Amino acid sequence: MRFEIKDRDGLARIGVLETRHGKVETPALLPVINPNKVLIEPKEMKKLFKIDILITNSYIIYKNKRLKEFALSKGVHKLLDFDGSIMTDSGTFQSYVYGDIDVDPIEIVEFQRDIGSDIGTILDLFTNPEESYDETKRKINETVRRARISSKVKGEMLLACPVQGGTYEDLRAACAKKMSEIECDVHPIGGVVPLMENQRYDDLAKVIISSKRYLPLSRVVHLFGAGHPLVFPLAVILGVDLVDSASYAKYARDDRLIFPWGTEKLEDLEEIPCNCPVCTSTDIKELKEMDKVEREKKIALHNLYICFSEMKRIKVAIKEGSLWELVEEKSSLNPMMFDALRVLEREDVKEWLEKFESISKKSALFYVNPHTLHRPIIYRYQKRLFSVYRPREKEVVLKEEVEKPYSRYYREEWEKSKIDIIVKTPFGPIPLPLDEMYPIAQSVFPKNIDEESKILSEKLIKEFLEKFELKETKERRKGKRDLDLDLDLDRVRYIIDMQFGKGVSDILLDGEVKIVKSKSTGKIRNVYLNGKHILSMRAQDGLFTLKVDGGRILHTYYASPRFRVVVENNVSDYIKNGRNVFSKFVVDCDSNLRPFDECLIVSEDDDFLGVGRCLLNRDEMLSFNYGIAVKTREGVKDGRNN
Ligand code: GUN
Ligand code: ZN
């Protein structure tokens, strides 16, 4: 299977999956087509919503003599009159709804293969959240057994092997681990429809997390029956690539309209708060009075407009790096979604999410609600500060927040004293020299944050003072101006340590240091050591990019694998000449590197080849066979500046 990441925001990814019927851009919403009752033609959906993939049920086709014969002779694409990618499900859900079904688990996989399905699904056993631990365990074992034998008969078809396990996190994890070892392509997370129906979004979050965490990152993850667009952002931020939905049709049957914030019954509405082509061309009175069949189609179309437009918002948010804002926004719209975000505040979950979080983003960080302070990027800032900070004195001056960047107000005071200035902010303590670093300067908070967040940031400031045994002082120590105290130099020091590790600034600045600032903005641009250009600072995020000469110093200082991406020896020359690193050639990587971190590129013999910017973390680099792992900034033979 060819699946490649093009863009990302944490675990959320814009990917391209190739099937025999073309490319599918993820995250994707797969509308469910009932082959027995086609409400809206796939062709029409393609025209209106540019869908490149849909999902249908092979069991329904298999059970109907006419559909079965047609599909076997002409194929499922002809049956549905759709030339894009088709995923098929297997009948598991029917067995959950109607009880036992009579089809052999292997036969249904072979059938999907024979009708030309692009992605077929094994006949997994649906694990209802109400079931006992032992029954759930039995079901996952049988599901895994079926996955194993199904993968032998799948032929050219891509195979989906669901993760089951009810709401037992350990069973989800165990199932995901076993599925990872089986040769297949897509991992749906199954058994979640009852959670969705009862809006148990906190359990849903637990289920997604405990499954996704143990699945190979290069495989596509699907959420079976995701239903409502309210849950799409949560699913996507937890690494779900595909969602399917029959809700657009199911709700339409009951005269229910989907909206970004929830669902409304037609009879309860006096006006439809929507401007989709259906709602602008149909009067609500007209809609209420029209023939049921016609109305059902109209509502289904409206529902699809909403669902696809929500998916578009998600894609835009991933590209901007603002998906957390969308997720938190949904949590303000629905109390059960609010509870779901509490699950993401668990220490172990934050630690996991942080591994996938980019170092910086295109857009500023916007505060939404009390969940905001738990975002992985803030968690990282706090962790790093606590691990790299080196107090210069036993006292600090604590300052209230002012307009950003804080140094505009506090610089002079800072430069006249050895005592550090720490600004009290929602992020917690911010030493003045860090005030321009992402996401600090690039964040927007209201004048008054909520009480919970306030308590959290106060607690952090207290912990900071305790950890570094600092005493608060109101008065700066008077005395001679210390010539060492230059805020620009300290900015360089602090940011180097935040980016490259505690004390690394002592190494990178060991010699004659020259800081070049922009004439127009006054911001730091380049750092030279003994006449060599070692670092550049990006104006947008206040973070350093590594030059080859800076990389050389880090390479000597840190032993392997620290800061390294190790590539196969046979691609060494390409990298030296400035070519990008493809995942396929990555042999190893420092597990501390994060997406968009600066890195050293080395050969298997630890020859230094160049410097670059990681697009993936270690687990992703080692899992993927396609796509770019590191954008090489400069190879040792390159000499270009890009
Ligand atoms: N559709 C909704 N839930 C499920 C599930 O758990 N398994 C399968 N195969 N299909 C589903
Ligand atoms: Zn509408």
Give me a quick take on this structure.
The chain has 642 residues and is an alpha/beta fold. The relative contact order is 0.07. Bound molecules: guanine and zinc ion (ZN).
What does this structure look like?
By secondary structure, this protein is α/β, with parallel strands linked by helices. The chain has 3 domains: 2-344, Queuine tRNA-ribosyltransferase-like (TIM Barrel, Alpha-Beta Barrel); 350-484, Archaeosine Trna-guanine Transglycosylase, Chain: A, domain 2, CATH 3.90.1020.10; 547-642, Archaeosine Trna-guanine Transglycosylase, Chain: A, domain 4. The chain has 26 helices and 29 strands. The strands form 8 sheets. It has a 6-stranded parallel beta sheet with strand order 6-5-4-11-10-9. A hairpin with a 6-residue loop joins strand 22 (532-537) and strand 23 (544-546). Helix 6 crosses helix 7 (133-153), helix 8 (169-180) runs parallel beside helix 10 and helix 15 crosses helix 16. The radius of gyration is 28 Å and the shape is globular. The relative contact order is 0.07. Zinc ion is lined by residues 274, 276, 278-279, 302, 305. Zinc ion binds at residues 274, 276, 278-279, 302, 305.
Helix amount, in percent?
25-40%
Low-pLDDT stretches:
none
Strand content: 15-25%
- The average pLDDT score comes to 96
Distinct ligands, ions and cofactors found in the model = guanine, zinc ion
Q: Using the coordinates shown, work out and report the CATH topology of the largest domain.
A: TIM Barrel
What structural class do you assign from the helix and strand content?
Answer: alpha/beta
- In CATH, the architecture of the largest domain is Alpha-Beta Barrel
What's the level 1 CATH class of the largest domain? Answer: Alpha Beta
Major sheet attributes: 6 strands, parallel
Radius of gyration: 28 Å
The total of helices stands at 26
Give the terminus-to-terminus CA distance.
33 Å
The overall strand count is 29
CATH H level, superfamily name of the largest domain = Queuine tRNA-ribosyltransferase-like
Number of domains: 3
Q: Can you tell me the overall shape?
A: globular
Sheet with most strands: strand arrangement: 6-5-4-11-10-9
